[in-house]
Amino acid sequence: MNKLELVSALKNATGISKNDAAKVVQIFFDSMTDALAENERVEIRGLCSFYVKEYKSYTGRNPKTGEPVVIKPKKLPFFKCGKELKERVDTK
Q1: Which of 34, 47, 48, 64 stands 20 to 30 A from 1 (CA)?
Q2: Domains, the chain
């Protein structure tokens, strides 16, 4: 399912206009993105949680030349599946 399909599902389930459904979906994603940018955890009970994982700087290697390269510290978002979602997917 992509974003447009999600908008259509919301529109069909609630009877609101496509523009309003698109706004709701956009507000939802923007709120999640803003929270993760502030290093906050986003948890949707029974479905999943998102959190930010921080990585320290380390020395890697250029695969072409074998030359050492310094990798800068970084933060990446992570997704963790909830128990109810795991069970629901496993039963189908």
Answers
A1: 34
A2: 3-91 (4.10.520.10)
What's the token pair of residue 47?
A: 């479905």
DSSP string, 31-42: HHHHHHHTT--E
Which H or E run includes 12? helix 3-14
Express each pLDDT in 11-26 by its tens digit.
999 999 999 999 999 9
Cα separation values, 80 from 37, 44, 47, 83, Å:
17, 10, 9, 10
Cut 0.85: pTM above it: no
